[in-house]
# Entry
Amino acid sequence: MRLFLSSLILVSSLLLIGCQTTKTTTQNAVTNPSHLAPPVRTSNYSIPSSSGLDNIISLAMTHHPSLVAAQQKIQRLQARVPQARTLPDPKARISAGSLAETAAGRTSAMAGIEQQIPFPGKRKAAAQAAQKEADAARAELENLKLLIAERIRIAYWNYYLAYQNQRINRDSKSVLKTIQEVVQARVKANKATQADILRVSTEISKVDQQLIAALQQVSSARATLNSLLNRPAGAHLPYPKRSSVPSQGSLSKLIARAEATHPTVRAGQAKMTAFQHRLRKARLDAYPDFLIGAQHAWVSDSGLSPAANGKDQTMFTLGVTIPLWQKPRKAKVREASAGVAEMRANVATSRSELRLRIEDAWFRAKSSREMITLFDQRLIPDAQQAHDLSLQAYSSGTQSFVDVLDTWRLLLKFQLQQEGNRASLGKASASLKSAAAIR
# Structure
């Protein structure tokens, strides 16, 4: 009986210690969350004035909160792998009371331990499925980085375009001021009418209107870019520079690269493999698990039999679970099979969407390059020359002031369109890099 009481006290102490440890761990997780990731807050970190687009993208990869969430998701899914690989906890039992009496004496107490061992392959399949889900999360993180980089590039080119519109309108206002001086000189010489002064004043007012709109566009573009950088909307940003846009390369090679290595494809393939491991695990669930155990009985020598010797008894057990209910197991097989088919279709969809994105961005970039060449080599030089000639002709009295304004408007239009072409090229290149998985 003393052995029984000692065992009972030992097992109870272990249970109390385990509960207390769990309680302490839980309390520490709540009151001392130092092991957790720090909360993500908007921070007004400085960006050097010499920073270009690539530097800004690197800063976003460090400060964007969605990337922190994606990294935590990877850690969460990776933590499932050892859980799936580990054996179930063993079970301990203690029996006391009116137990059986044997020839060796009355049984005073029994204690035993039992361990369940899953059918070979079950734990491995579950762990492999968990690992592939973590791998899919890693690929999704890479895709998220590509999407954020694309959004930043597009926002940066919008920021650049707004600044260029503001600059061109300021330069145009200076040109109009010069024209206004020419008109005023001709009016004084009775070679022009007051209507010409009113016309140029009206054009200056229109430019002022465009400058107000351009200022708003600059502020909006700055706020969008700062939001992607996890900074306050009005935080200072370096002056946007016109970064070089490399050639888009071969369309067929870009499509082949995307279909083989793009993170969305790799994530879908990893998820499909995870479902394949789940399918194998579901089929293995039709087989029984094994149970091994050991029991020890403390026997008293004060039994009814005169031959009672009080010899303790030790027993070993071997058993199996009975997979009786096959309906839920068959449902697991159907679920995993549907998951494999679903992910296979998702991979095909991802490849189709990538082909569309690459082709659209590739042709947009090609068109923008051709437009830039056309404007640089022909349209803008011709418009500039036409404006200069019309201004000279007006000064000499051979052309009307309306002709001067027409040529000036055309030149301004081409200058604004050219910056729009450059921004369109930059945004098309951003979409192409994202679709082709180019950093």
In short: Confidence is low (pLDDT under 50) at residues 1-5, 8-18. Residues 51-86+118-287+323-432 form a domain with the Outer membrane efflux proteins (OEP) fold (CATH 1.20.1600.10). The two ends are 74 Å apart (CA to CA). Residues 326-396 form the longest helix (71 residues).
